[in-house]
Amino acid sequence: EGRDISSTVNLAPWEAALGTKLPVPTLGGTVELNLPAGTQGGKKMRLKGRGLPGATPGDQFITLQIVTPPAASEEDRKFYEEMGARFKFDPRA
Question: Which residues, 6 or more positions from 62, have their beta carbon under 8 angstroms from its beta carbon?
Answer without folding.
Answer: 6, 7, 8, 9, 24, 33, 44, 45, 46, 47
